[in-house]
């Protein structure tokens, strides 16, 4: 089964991805949802 079939992002190191999600989760503890933090990060000027 390939990474795309498993629902993960192909070409991204799993450990780096988990580290990123951990940071987003830490930021989200300030009262925001993880997806909201991620979208704000992507849309920031």
Describe the structure.
The chain is mainly α and 45 residues long. The chain has a domain at 13-43. Helix content is 64%, strand content 0%. The protein has 3 helices and no strands. It has helices at 3-6, 14-28, 34-43. α2 (14-28) crosses α3. The longest helix is centred in the middle third of the chain and has 15 residues, at 14-28. The protein is globular and about 30 Å long. The N and C termini lie far apart (38 Å). The model has no long low-confidence stretch (mean pLDDT 81).
- The helix/strand series, from N terminus to C terminus, equals HHH
- How far apart the termini lie comes to 38 Å
* Helix-strand makeup class: mainly alpha
How much strand content do the residues show? under 5%
Q: What is the gyration radius calculated from CA atoms?
A: 13 Å
Quantity of strands, as a count: 0
Share in helix: 55-70%
Major sheet size, sense and barrel closure:
none
Low-confidence stretches: none
On the 0 to 100 scale, the average pLDDT is 81
- Tell the overall outline: globular
> In DSSP terms, counting alpha (H) and pi (I) runs of 4 or more, how many helices?
3
């Amino acid at each position: 089964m390939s990474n795309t079939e498993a629902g993960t992002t192909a070409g991204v190191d799993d450990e780096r991805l988990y580290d990123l999600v951990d940071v987003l989760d830490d930021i989200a503890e300030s009262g925001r949802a993880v997806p909201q933090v991620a979208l704000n990060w992507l849309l920031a000027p």
